[in-house]
Design a protein that fits this description.
Elements: E1 15-20, E2 24-29, E3 33-38, E4 43-44, E5 47-48, H1 56-71, E6 79-84, E7 87-91, E8 94-95, E9 98-105, H2 108-115, E10 120-121, E11 124-125, E12 135-141, E13 144-145, H3 158-163, H4 169-192, E14 195-206, E15 212-215, E16 224-228, H5 232-238, E17 244-246, H6 248-256, H7 272-290, H8 302-321
Antiparallel strand pairs: 1-2, 2-3, 3-7, 4-5, 6-7, 8-14, 9-12, 9-13, 9-14, 10-11, 14-15, 14-16, 16-17
Helix pairs in contact: 1-7
Length: 322
């Protein structure tokens, strides 16, 4: 089994605290910068799997930072630099307590709700007569609450967000606008690569000077679902499953093995062979969405590599700032 990074215990210069999410670990540097380390942890149904996926953190980090570079002229983001294949460094932000989910197609969670007979999702009405993976007439925004570690994200409507004061109306209008702009750009880039961006989620935060920026990740296989464009219509007409590149294949494997994150359910054993196939799927998406070959970083000692690269970056950054 290849070396993976599933937990970190770094001690960077001027480090104040560390936040451990489901997949990323975020280090606060002097209440000014955030060092975000993308681990190889795999999360599904809001549960972290016991084994890491080789190169997954590198893939997530490099896709997200590349897309931030490609969309920075459309929507401001938190990113400053990527000093290591698994690391992004950006401005300290106060995150909004909602995730902005946008769906162009009736897939995943939306399809499961629809199949159960529900026609409203997060206060948005879904039209009658759709079948799974059909395109919506217009993309719909279906926010979720940003769950604390170990808790499930929960669907919430625009009206609830505003009435509970989770986000001000003025800010929420900006979040909606940014979400649509990013989804449109992501759809365009995916189409150029022979893919369909089915649905995705974005997280936003506020910088110290009150600017709303995109944070975390964008258009990665953890936050997005992609179909292959070629053959999509034919598969829909025949009622076949779509060929897709996303984390959904992991969810489907878990469901088939009796696990949906519910109390009392056991996580099925992920064999080395299965883990290798998951890693290969992540590499496939990287190469497909970015249109370039994936170059594997040296993983003989990931922790030492990250420590050295981040420390060197912080030293150079402090010299520039002083």
């Amino acid at each position: 089994m290849s070396n993976t990074i599933t937990t970190t215990n770094f001690n960077f210069p001027n480090q104040k605290s560390v936040y451990r999410g489901k997949v990323r670990e975020v280090y606060n540097i002097n209440d000014e910068l955030l060092v975000m380390v993308a681990t190889d942890r795999l999360s599904a149904f809001d549960v972290v799997m016991p084994k890491g996926i080789p190169y997954k953190g590198q893939i997530l980090n490099q896709i997200a930072t590349r897309f931030m570079e490609m969309t920075g002229n459309l929507v401001p983001n938190w990113l400053i630099a990527t000093p290591d294949p698994n690391v992004a460094v950006g401005h300290l932000c106060e995150p909004f307590k909602v995730e902005m989910v946008i769906r162009g197609y009736l897939s995943g969670h939306a399809a499961r709700e629809y199949k159960a007979g529900r026609r409203t999702l997060c206060g948005v009405t879904m039209p009658e007569g759709l079948k799974e993976n059909d395109k919506f007439p217009e993309p719909i925004i279906t926010p979720t609450t940003k769950a604390d570690n170990g808790k499930h994200d929960e669907d919430i409507s625009r009206e609830e967000i505003l009435s509970k004061g989770i986000v001000s109306e003025e800010d929420y209008i900006v979040l909606e606008n940014y979400t649509r702009v990013l989804y449109n750009k992501g759809t365009e880039i995916a189409s150029d690569r022979g893919l369909i961006l089915v649905d995705t989620k974005y997280e936003f935060g506020k910088t110290k000077d009150g600017k709303i920026v995109l944070i975390d990740e964008i258009h990665t296989p953890d936050s997005s679902r992609y179909f292959y464009k070629d053959g999509y219509e034919e598969r829909q007409e025949r009622g076949e499953e779509q060929k897709q590149l996303s984390k959904e294949f992991v969810r489907q494997w878990l469901i088939a093995n009796g696990f949906q994150g519910k109390e009392g359910q056991q996580i099925p054993d992920m064999t080395p062979e299965y883990i290798e196939t998951v890693s290969e799927r992540y590499i496939e998406l990287y190469e497909k969405i970015l249109g370039e070959q994936f170059v594997k970083a040296d993983i003989s000692n990931i922790n030492e590599r990250i420590q050295n690269n981040v420390v060197q970056f912080l030293e150079n950054y402090n010299k520039r700032e002083s």
